[in-house]
Amino acid sequence: MEKDRKHNWKNGLTETVLFLPSLLICIPILILLTGSLMGRGELAEYLRPVLGETGGYIAWKLMPDYPTFENYRKLLLETPQFFVLFWNSMGMVAAVLLGQMAVGIPAAWAFAAYEFPFRKWILTLYIVLMLLPFQVTMLSSYLVLDGMGMMNTRRAIVLPAIFSTFPVFVCYGGFSRIPGEMLDSARMDGAGEFLIFARFALPLGKGGILSAMVLGFLEYWNLMEQPLAFLEDKALWPLSLYLPEITWAQAGYAFAASVITLVPAVFVFLMGQDYLELSRYLDYISPMVYPSHYGPYNYNIPIPDAEPYRLVLAAMQSSRKVLAGVPINDGKEELASLEPLEGVKARVRPWLQDFTASYLPHHISYGPQQVREQIQAVYDAGYEEWILWDAAVSYHYDGLLPAQ
After folding, report:
1. 74, exposed or middle or buried, with CB in 10 Å at 0-12, 13-18, 19+?
2. Helix axes 155-162, 134-147, angle to 10 degrees
3. Average pLDDT of 129-139?
4. pLDDT in tens, 151-173
5. Stretch 220-232: mean pLDDT, rounded?
6. Fewest CB atoms within 10 Å of the CB: 45, 69, 257, 285?
7. For residue 119, what are the CA distances in angstroms to 41, 83, 106, 115, 201?
């Protein structure tokens, strides 16, 4: 009991130490939210040091003295240029993502599924181009776009983004995990290449595709350098360039506009993080439930790495509760009989640990018994599929057999 209390105390201290930097990161968001609800007089009083009217440092309150939605009202009802730039951003991002789906996904599939001369060299070149910052390619891009007569048009932003190498790289990772034997079997059964792409590549590589779309949305929603370099007409600017145009005298507008600008990006990001929401769109979800990846007393297990059956069982039971709409702390016993919520179509196929985490202070050696325990835990939680992982590709095949 004393040892448990000591571990709990250490965990509490660790969580507190980690929470403080997280709070510091969130402070700018809190300032945006509270500033957007402040009146002009209150903002002017707090921002006088910034405006150069007084010396010293600014003062701030996490809760306004007189909260008001006046800034939002004026921005949304009396500032038509805000909506022009908002829909500029939405149009550009939608065009870019649709173009990337039409160009990047087939290109990624070609790299993953086919052998052709210089394939590895071309893929390496793609990676190098992906790492180059915009400043390196800005001059050459400017000359090409100017020669094609696209300067000061939305095409100057959309077309280069459509042919970005980043979505190709992300989607390639998902496609490369599809077994070649499966594709060969489909060809032997008479499936054409387009059918294989539509029926195998897109469903099985959906995770990488969604990742590319989410990351692409976040990148192009916040685009600043390309519009500044290639667009002279401010009526064509995206919303990300509207904020620097707001003067300090309109600080309330700036705060309110910043909050509204954040909303679509936060919404898209949260959709890509929600386990239940993902299950409505993906064919498979593969949580990585390696016991070595869990800290002390996760699921009330002192050393998760030393108890692979308990850890995997608890993690997969939590998965089953989430997909069934049952609270995690619900004490239901018959979890295997829980049915997923309506609309949940993903099959859960967890990654299991087949390696020894020697970097942990209280690790155990993993062998056939530990592999067998994890597999049994998956079955006991009501699931039927699993995947083993060992970076050294030295799997314990005896763990796939019944215990002697």
Report:
1. middle
2. 120
3. 85
4. 999 999 999 999 988 899 888 88
5. 88
6. 69
7. 63, 45, 15, 7, 19
Which segments of 176-274 does DSSP mark as H helices, in order? 180-188, 193-196, 202-204, 206-221, 225-230, 251-273
> What is the amino acid identity at position 207?
G
| % of the chain residues with pLDDT over 70 | 85
d(CA 251, CA 59): 15
Q: Does residue 89 share a domain with residue 60?
A: no
pLDDT at 353: 92
Q: Is the pTM of this model over 0.85?
A: no
From 44, 68, 92, the end of a domain falls on 68
| Domain range enclosing 16 | 2-68
In the chain, what's the furthest Cα-to-Cα distance? 82
Decide which of 220, 241, 273 is a domain's last residue. 273
Q: Which residues pair with 347 in a beta bridge?
A: 284
Dist CA 175 CA 200 (whole Å): 10
pLDDT confidence tier of residue 94, bands split at 50, 70 and 90: very high
Q: Work out the angle at residue 384's Cα, subtended by the Cα atoms of residues 379 and 390, and round it to the nearest 5 degrees.
A: 85
Would you mind telling me the total number of residues written for the chain in this entry?
A: 404
